[in-house]
Amino acid sequence: MELPFAESWKIKMIEPLRKSTRAEREQWLEAAHNNVFMLKAEQVYIDCLTDSGTGAMSDRQWSEMMLGDESYAGATSFFKFESTVQRIFGFKYVIPTHQGRAAENVLFSYLVKQGHVIPGNAHFDTTKGHIESRHASAIDVTIDEAKDTQLEIPFKGNVSLEKLEKVLSENQGNVPFMVLTVTNNTVGGQPVSMQNIRETAELCHKYGVPVVMDSARFAENAYFIKTREEGYADKTIKEIAKEMYSYVDAMTMSAKKDGLVNMGGFIATNREDWYEGAKLFCIPFEGFLTYGGLNGRDLNALAVGLDENTEFEMLETRIHQVQYLASKLDEYGIPYQRPVGGHALFIDADKVLCNVPIKEFPAQTLTCELYLEAGIRGCEIGYILADRDPVTRENRFGGMDLLRLCIPRRVYTDNHMNVIAAALKNVYDRRNEITHGVAIEWEAPLMRHFTVKLKRLG
């Protein structure tokens, strides 16, 4: 008899969870202006808002926390972290930052100027925000197949080389770099193939444009290359990662995802000019170059986390749980972005809440309904997150409208996945009764989804 799949780790510490009543959740959500970011953590039963900084660290990481060197400059913890980054990614110059958006802020402050055009495979919210706040333009060059949530292809996060070349040829001299995001979060945590990484970099370099890899979930991308792309089945995750980064010029990383830490990020590159330029912004924004807004203990934990999460067994356990939840949704007929990605389920809200008009934000409505059903907090990745067009100030309704359910690493059991699936089924079963969504009462001019205030309609 074949042995069933089991986790590659065991649990050594627990945190109690609190359940709540529907009446309580109604009151809490109203007080939060129907924005789940504004809920208190204690008001949430299962938290799938994000996988960023919400994972559980290992015993090895916790032991390294005790060895942290908190020297302001030249701490041994920095050099331990730096050598790990150099070994795994192959870059010489490393600048730590307190998280991924800080890495973007430091690097983009040096590289991005007003009027620049930065193509990318569906820039995530902070990336687009950092570009547009500098009065530059972020242009999506993801393949069209990514918009068909029910289409099953192995590398749905790929760059369209035709779209990319059009942007590069029409904006020669005005493209400071291209952003290549692995995995492609905005279109459902979809991976990018090694072939596409290589061909994208070759095309950019043909036009003299460097490539920056947004690397929050690089290890999960490497896992999909190993399991889906011909020629990589026998390669280790570390070997695949090293090849991925051999094609690009620099990386920014939110280490709160595939670094398995609660806080941290970094920039890495082989370009000395970029390193020297970014240094000028790191010191005033983040701190000295050997700590970059992090404690020494954080740097130690991150060094271990990068090593742990580039081992196949750790990734297999993590992605298997996401796939398990997807199998339950298949059982219930609930449409999501297929094939399932590595860190989250992205529910196709337009296909679930068919009676809610687009202008009433179906994905945000579905997010609220799921919380009211069972205290499960997800995140809208759709029309609210897309912000308004910076020129016309019209809502951008052209993309996908998804409810993202992120699964924190090494935190929940499959029983929690069963609860999530059952709650979604309950909402799905009464979907025809939901005919009204939400309206915006107040919004920030940029990255509005974090703080937007909404009212329920109907």
Unreliable stretches, pLDDT < 50, 5 or more residues? none
How many DSSP E strands? 14
Largest sheet: 5 strands, mixed
Rg value: 21 Å
Class based on secondary structure composition and strand pairing: alpha/beta
The CA-CA distance between the termini, in Å, is 55 Å
Structural domain tally? 2
**For this entry, what is the oligomeric state of its chains?**
single chain
Average pLDDT confidence is 96
CATH superfamily of the largest domain: Type I PLP-dependent aspartate aminotransferase-like (Major domain)
Strand content: 5-15%
Order of helices and strands: HEHHEHEHEHEHEHHEEHHHEHHEEEHEE
CATH hierarchy: architecture of the largest domain: 3-Layer(aba) Sandwich
Helical content band: 25-40%
Walk across the major sheet and give the strand order. 2-8-7-6-5
Total of DSSP H or I helical runs spanning 4+ residues: 15
CATH uppermost class of the largest domain: Alpha Beta
Basic shape: globular
* CATH third-tier fold name of the largest domain: Aspartate Aminotransferase, domain 2
Report on the architecture of this protein.
This protein has 458 residues and is α/β, with parallel strands linked by helices. The protein has 2 domains: 22-51 and 313-456, Aspartate Aminotransferase, domain 1, CATH 3.90.1150.10; 59-308, Aspartate Aminotransferase, domain 2 (3-Layer(aba) Sandwich), CATH 3.40.640. Helix content is 38%, strand content 12%. It has 15 helices and 14 strands. It has helices at residues 22-31, 59-65, 76-89, 100-111, 125-132, 161-170, 194-206, 218-228, 237-246, 272-285, 296-308, 312-332, 349-352, 362-374, 414-429, and strands spanning 46-47, 93-97, 117-120, 137-140, 178-181, 211-214, 250-254, 265-269, 344-348, 376-377, 379-381, 402-406, 438-442, 453-456. The strands form 5 sheets. The protein has a 5-stranded mixed beta sheet with strand order 2-8-7-6-5, sandwiched between helices. α7 (194-206) links the parallel β5 and β6 (211-214). α4 (100-111) crosses α10 and α12 runs parallel beside α15. It starts with 21 loop residues before the first helix and ends with a strand. The model has no long low-confidence stretch (mean pLDDT 96).
